[in-house]
Fold this protein.
Amino acid sequence: MKIFTFAFALLLAYPLLGQHTINQSSGKISFYEVNSVTFEGHSGSEIIISPENGHDFKMPERAAGLKLISAGGLEDNTGIGLSVKTEGNETTVAQLSSRGHARYIVQVPAGVAIYYECSTHAGKTVITKDLESELEISANFNHVKLHNAQGPLAVSTVHGTIEAEFSSINQDQSISLHSVHNHVDVSVPSDAKANFRLSTSWGEMFTDLDLDYEQDSALKKISSKKMEGKFNGGGVDFSIKSTHDDIYLRKI
Amino acid sequence: MIEVQQGHNAAMSELFRRHHDRVFDYLYKLSRNRELSHDILQDVFERILHKKHTYQQSVPFVPWTLRIARNMLMDHFRKNKMKTVEIAEWDKPTTNMPAEHADIHLAMQKLRPEYREVLTLTRYQGMRYQEVAQVIGISETGVKTRVHRAIKDLREAYLQITTS
Amino acid sequence: MEDYQEILIPYLLGDLSEKEALQMKSRLLVDPDLNREFLELKEMWDNSQNIPIAQAEPHASERFEQWLVAQKDHHSQEPAHIIGLWKYAAAASVLLLLGMLWFLGSGPQEQIMDQPAQTNLLQWTAQESSTERIKGIHTSVREKSTDPDIVRALIKILQSDKSPNVRLTAVEAVQSMASSEESKQGLLKALENEKTPVVQIAIINALVSVQAGNAKEGFQELINKEEIETYVKDEAQLGLMRL
């Protein structure tokens, strides 16, 4: 019996290794310079951060018994290469190793807003799946790929692409997707409601949506390509912008 | 209430059970006197049973009841020639109340009774202006203005308390 | 609406017309003092929600039951003391009745008169949510308010908002409105202090689009600054050619 208990305890403990849990179901979680992240919506009341299989964080052998620290004085308090600090219902996450190749899967309860900021070349694609939380991304190099998105969203990247598939469009707040040098490709359900606002300076705009264009605004700006149109009678403000590349807006 | 009108006392019992806390809260927030509020609460429901034949189904029950409560409390004040009770009698905030709640509690007690009344009805009884108007017998616009002034005074009282 | 301070309370309660409320929202975005005052007021109002509902002592119910028992029911002649026993049978019909009364009467607790406005306000003015602030900008601009404060507001947001995406939206909004000397100056000033590349690029393009001739100097300065990212400098270079 004792052996059973021990084995059972081991079974329970094992999946917890290399994962960090934060008891938080509201407020905000901010990520700074965490290169590679997948956000997943989940129905729990905890934020769970775990390295993706095969892409987990490894300490060099020579560093056995030592702690990873950053130039800013942060230290790894999670055992997975991240420094996590929670105050009230605000959590800040920073990556310690600038060459870290780990991808982190972050499961986020619907009530927690996410802020993600990454400025370096090391930034990889930010992926989201089934996210219900508010998400804000400010990046320079990251691509952004959203699956089963619904908003609210505020995404900007200088060099990355933005590809977003919406399962529905949340009518609260707003949605904005903005890339400077790459394309923005958005698919929305054919019955979703939105006030679309598309603009590009050097690219083209493509769509198969039936939009009610607002003539007034179409006339106002002729120098750059810019249009506003209501979809299915209009709804939440949804702006899509690519300064130098193309915009694709399609219905599913 | 219809069943009460038809003579079912059990219905009356149920009406009391459902609504007495609400009526009590209104009386207590206005009078700041527990004992008096209990007495008038009893009187109100006795009066309802006695006046059951005057109740019209088209009139919402809660405002109707609170109107009765109000009239009885006013009668009491008139008879006893007192408008409000002394501060000493007011409820002290309970000790386990967070400071900011205790402060607002005190501020509320410093308000003029007619202001405390409209705040009680809108804020704690969840009534719309139109319903409050039915209870206190003034116009809907009058209620709105009174609520705005009440919050203005409440803010001043609250600031005084928190900055002193 | 001259005195915004005077209508903070009606705004808090959702008692303003849609138009007035909108003006107030825009005003709050630009007037930090007023916004602080509003947040303080709102905090107090939220706290006031926590005053407990006074409850009658249990003896109040007993007292009333006893009184009821003492009353002989004229119609049924039923001994009053069995009330307790058939009360449950009657409860269903009473409940139905109460439900109707409640519906006709005060409305359930969820229909507290200021709740929708409260929720709305929370989202608008607590301003913790970037996407909410972005919505605020879109709404203000869409109203095409003649209020000259709007441009000033946008510039202020551009200079102070902590979210790059909100600042980005502010730049686009300024760009979409009739250009004035004030808006050009505001954009230029913002460019000096802006640290986020995506917003720097947006400001450069906005200045080009409103043909702000005096931006050339600013662009040149940017190009000479060491800490500016190369790809931002490229955009400024391109801007110089287009001006």
